[in-house]
């Protein structure tokens, strides 16, 4: 009986999709084109464009060890500030992709790119569901231009593309933050009474765990999720049975969330609450965070401009200023008409809390800090576009069309294939091949002199090729110190001084002298040997 019900449900879903496509052929074809463009921008020569620096090298080393040695990581990567560690969920997510790619780092990068394409679709889907146009029999039959604008701009945004073609823990945050927001919306919309509310709460717990384990600024998503969870609870009112089911489902979802976050708790217990203390300092120390009122308001403005300029406006400052002005006016209208009542209220709260929270951080804000906000401005501007198109003012429609066309033009100029590849992974491979060749099959140590301590990117390929590279260990120097040390200097030669570098991988080798040197990919590779000290 259950199997038959499942089959009927699947047939009903397929039937609805088929009906929608037949009634919306034009929108379907445009959406398909947007997805194809988004996929092309993310997958085009991905091995040449992908970021492959110290963080990415470290991650593939850890995940490879997990796969080959069955050594599951209990903690994720460290953050760039605050001496904090993230959870290990992203490492587990990487593992299947790395294995399927035969340990090529391109595998996890392709995984992120495909997740980015799914996010493009998700932006269209949510915009269309939240802000529908004319419907017939429950199916939208009018072209939802707003949803297509939101998805189209997201598909070609240079900043979004940059973080959609490399394997890095913050790069999964846009998808999982959007999934978290959509999950709480489905919970709120059902008023806790739907049979599927438990599933949406569980989805929320899982997706938000991924958000927090991709970057801790995802904490600023929590107030929005909590407010709409409370609103759902208030909507249930006096229905004790529904309220009991809702609370029980919420407890189950929170328990699952806590289980996924438990490795961090175990780590803290074993390391004298290092993460907890670091996070507390990060968010409360006057040295690291917190600003005087005027400076704080200025920071909110600068953060808002950064979000709209770098995300939907193709990094064009003038378009960014225009988008900020339009968005402020639109948000004021939303708060006046839709405060905490519908999807408008959820979207506006998501953006407002996110911007205010991020501005609270005193240090420099980078684009990847904003992953939990990435989809939001696209949804907002897409919805605004639909509002303009619903208006009978022809001049407004013409101006909107010209503006969108200019945004597309500006964005394409900063997208592949119109920008030069970084060649970070091909460079690492080439340098590693030279090291392996010059080592001549003998054991050797490895170090790097660079801005990002990129030793791991060369080490990874040397390990998977079976080279005799050995990590120096002061406690067992007798067994881990070899007769040759290869040092990759990524600076111009005048700034390279490998025999006097403070790098631990060099100082552990002992007193050194330069034995040989080679120019490789714009850098210099040194072979060092020991100096006999009597």
Short account of what is shown:
The chain is mainly α. Helix content is 62%, strand content 6%.
What do these coordinates show?
This protein is mainly alpha-helical and 534 residues long. The protein has 2 domains: 2-413, no CATH class; 424-530. Helices cover 62% and strands 6% of the residues. The protein contains 22 helices and 6 strands. The chain has a 4-stranded mixed sheet. Strands 1-2 form a two-stranded antiparallel sheet. The radius of gyration is 26 Å and the shape is globular. The model has no long low-confidence stretch (mean pLDDT 89).
Give structural attributes.
534 residues; mainly alpha; 62% helix
Order of helices and strands: HHHHHHEEHHHHHHHHHHHHHEHHEHEE
| Parts with pLDDT < 50 across at least 5 consecutive residues | none
Structural class estimated from helices and strands? mainly alpha
Largest sheet: 4 strands, mixed
Radius of gyration: 26 Å
* Count of helical stretches: 22
Number of strands: 6
The helix content is 55-70%
Instruction: Report strand %.
Output: 5-15%
Average of per-residue pLDDT values: 89
Number of domains: 2
Q: Please report the distance between the alpha carbons of the first and last residues.
A: 86 Å
Q: What is the general shape?
A: globular
The strands making up the biggest β-sheet line up spatially as 3-4-6-5
